[in-house]
Amino acid sequence: AKLGFSVEGLQEYQYAAERSGVSTAQFNTASQRMVRRVSEAAAGIGKTGKALKELGLDAKWLNSLKPEEQFEHISEAMKHIPNKADRVRLAMKLFDTEGVGLVNMLNGGKAGLEALRKDARATGNIISKEDAKNAEDFQDAFLDFKQIIGSVNKSIGAKFMPLVTRMMIKFKAFHEKYGARF
To answer: Shortest CA distance to 17 belongs to which of 93, 119, 136?
Structure first.
C-alpha cells in the first residue's frame, strides 16, 4: 500500500482524516510529507528533527516504524502539548500546510486514533488486502481488455477504410451528377 501503510490502515486513517475535516487527498499529501520528513530528520537533515525532539520522539527510532505507527506516536506526543498554537506549529513542521487540519485528528492521541479507526471498520467500507489486490488485478485486466477492443476497432476500421473511401467518392460523384434533382 501507499508509503508502507497497510491497505486497511490507509483506509482507516483516511476515514479518520475525513471525520476530522481533512480530505483524503490532503491526508495522503500530509502522510507523504510526514514519511519523508521523518526520514530526513533521521538522516540529520531538514527542519523536522527539532520538532520531533520537542515532542520527545527520536527521529531514527520513529523512522524505523511503519507510517501507521508513526502517526500513533506523533498523535500521542501531540496530545501532551498543552498549547493549541504549539500543536499547530509542530503539525506544520511534520505535515506542512495539511498539518493544521490534522491537529484535530491527532488531539485524541493513540486512543483517539484507534477509536476513529474502529469507527471506520464499523462502516463495513474497509476492504481487505486481498480485495484490494483483486480490484487492482481487475483494473489491470480491464485496461488490457479496453486496449484490445480499441485495437480491434482500429484494425477493422483500417480494413474497411478503402471501401468506405471509395463509397464516399462514388456518393460525391452521384450527388454532383444527380443531387440537384432531389
So the answer is: 119
CA distance 14 to 20: 10
CB count within 10 Å of CB 79 equals: 16
Q: Are residues 153 and 104 in the same domain?
A: no
Q: Please, what's the largest Cα pairwise distance for the chain?
A: 92
23 and 77 housed in the same domain? yes
Tell how far CA 21 is from the center of its chain: 16
* Contacts for 29 with CB less than 8 Å, ≥ 6 apart: 96, 98
Helices (H) and strands (E) in the chain, counts: 9, 0
Residue numbers of the domain that contains 166: 134-181
**Measured between alpha carbons, how far is residue 25 from residues 13, 66, 73, 118, 173 in Å?**
12, 20, 22, 21, 59
Block means of pLDDT (10 residues each) for the chain, length 182 residues?
80 93 93 95 94 97 96 94 94 91 90 92 86 82 88 82 89 86 64
